[in-house]
């Protein structure tokens, strides 16, 4: 069987399973053109294991099919122009174009002419029209007739308070300028990050943005929105078995920020207590967050804040503690990561567990054997487990996760890690992996104990 024939088979079978899963969940078919969001677009929606895996495999197969069909030079040039799409999306978000097009007075079949929109935003009509046309060619909007534009399902995700506009602001402003310097940061003797080269600072990034509120606000909005929206997928008992932790266990969220993940854990598992550790100045924001979203946890005394710098020894040690770090280690270079982990190791007992919530990446290697498509074998009543990627698709596919890995290098000279790299890092610190728990989000939970 050729690669093209195999991809066609994977796509056809996956589409059948996708539609069966949608029907079983009483969900409508997926679409692009209608100016409304699909229930699956709610980032808190927890998909069945088979539906999640089917979408993952199908998306990867479609990407590979596109790579097979498109002339290689055209693909390379198109991807090289990706910065133009990024800036066009930034324009659309900055002026809330999707929000304007979503207003009830807009005829969704006819849309609004570019000149009217441009004048509303104080922009030149011709370049605005051309930017919108480029976005429409990639299905971010619809061009309903020449020079007239309307929303579709994709653009509806650009309407605040959805997460996407905040992510685009970060990518198109900070990320693009930083990425411009990533190649210059790669020589062996260059200690500066892409961010340091781009913005001219010599501290770590967190110290720099703390002195620049415009960048701090942008990053907090982008990261918090994404991370908090995926808390539901991380706390379900069908991933890591939170429900099996003994009653009265204190889950210590090291560097937990405003405590969104711990809030979700506390709500889902009433037998647990949660402790959010972070810098003292984070405390008031965390308290305000809990008062607004989880007042019952405060009233029950099951959630609290403790000032702590994870570069200092961990003050909590005992059999009642489980330690959690979400998206911390990937923010720091190797030496700092070792320091953070050593501080936790020194507080851990043989029975202790550390849970690191981060992207775990897998090299996109094409399977040597013709692995079959196993979607039909997934039991939705069993805990989620990622299936093997069928031939001829490369392992993964993890387009977002691998891009995030490069973003960590740009900002911190840090990284996301493969399972082998986690083994290596933890081994330096006297720790070892118990299990890597896949989740129905882009993150995994790495369960760790003393070696």
UniProtKB/TrEMBL annotation:
Coiled-coil positions are none
Outline the extent of the O-methyltransferase C-terminal domain: 198-361
Choose any GO biological process term that the UniProt entry carries and state it: methylation
- Asked if the Swiss-Prot or TrEMBL record annotates the protein with the keyword S-adenosyl-L-methionine, the reply is yes
Q: Name one GO molecular function term.
A: O-methyltransferase activity
Keyword S-adenosyl-L-methionine belongs to the record: yes
Keyword list, A-Z: Methyltransferase, S-adenosyl-L-methionine, Transferase
Q: Could you tell me which residue ranges the O-methyltransferase dimerisation domain spans?
A: 85-159
- A Pfam family found in this protein is Methyltransf_2
**InterPro entries given in the database record:** COMT-like (IPR016461), COMT_C (IPR001077), COMT_dimerisation (IPR012967), SAM-dependent_MTases_sf (IPR029063), WH-like_DNA-bd_sf (IPR036388), WH_DNA-bd_sf (IPR036390)
What's the protein called, per UniProt? Answer: S-adenosyl-L-methionine-dependent methyltransferase
Organism of this sequence: Dacryopinax primogenitus (strain DJM 731) (Brown rot fungus)
């Amino acid at each position: 069987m050729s690669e093209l024939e195999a991809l066609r088979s994977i796509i056809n079978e996956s589409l059948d399973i996708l539609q069966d899963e949608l029907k079983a969940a009483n969900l409508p078919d997926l679409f692009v053109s209608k100016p409304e969001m699909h229930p699956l677009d709610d980032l808190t929606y927890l998909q069945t294991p088979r539906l999640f895996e089917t979408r993952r495999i199908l998306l990867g197969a479609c990407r590979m099919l596109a790579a097979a069909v498109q002339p290689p030079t055209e693909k390379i040039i198109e991807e090289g122009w990706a910065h133009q799409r990024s800036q066009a999306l930034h324009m659309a978000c900055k002026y809330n174009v999707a929000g304007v097009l979503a207003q009830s007075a807009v005829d969704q079949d006819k849309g609004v002419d570019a000149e009217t929109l441009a004048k509303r935003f104080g922009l030149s009509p011709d370049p605005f029209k051309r930017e919108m046309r480029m976005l429409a060619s990639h299905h971010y909007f619809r061009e309903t007739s020449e020079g007239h534009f309307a929303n579709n399902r994709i653009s509806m995700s650009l309407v605040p308070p959805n997460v996407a506009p905040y992510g685009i602001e970060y990518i198109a402003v900070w990320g693009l300028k930083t990425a411009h310097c990533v190649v210059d940061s790669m020589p062996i003797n260059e200690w500066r990050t892409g961010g340091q080269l781009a913005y001219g600072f010599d501290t770590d990034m967190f110290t720099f943005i703390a002195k620049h509120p415009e960048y701090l606000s942008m990053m907090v909005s982008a990261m918090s929105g994404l991370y908090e929206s995926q808390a539901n997928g991380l706390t379900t008992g069908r991933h890591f078995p939170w429900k099996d932790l003994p009653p009265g266990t204190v889950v210590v969220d090291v560097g937990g920020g405003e405590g969104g993940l711990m809030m979700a854990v506390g709500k889902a598992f009433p037998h647990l207590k949660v402790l959010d550790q972070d810098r003292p100045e984070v405390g008031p924001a965390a308290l305000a967050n809990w008062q607004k979203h989880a007042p019952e946890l405060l009233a029950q005394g099951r959630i609290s804040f403790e000032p702590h710098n994870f570069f200092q020894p961990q003050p909590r040690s005992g059999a009642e503690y489980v330690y959690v770090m979400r998206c911390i280690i990937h923010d720091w270079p190797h030496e700092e990561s070792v320091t953070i982990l050593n501080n936790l190791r020194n507080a851990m007992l043989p029975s202790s567990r550390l849970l690191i919530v981060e992207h775990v990446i897998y090299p996109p290697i094409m399977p040597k054997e013709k692995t079959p498509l196993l979607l039909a074998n997934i039991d939705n009543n069993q805990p989620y487990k990622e299936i093997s990627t069928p031939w001829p698709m490369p392992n993964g596919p993890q387009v977002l996760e691998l891009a995030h890995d490069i973003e960590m290098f740009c900002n911190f000279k840090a990284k996301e890690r493969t399972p082998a790299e986690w083994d290596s890092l933890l081994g330096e610190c006297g720790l070892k992996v118990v299990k890597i728990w896949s989740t129905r989000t882009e993150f995994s939970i790495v369960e760790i104990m003393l070696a």
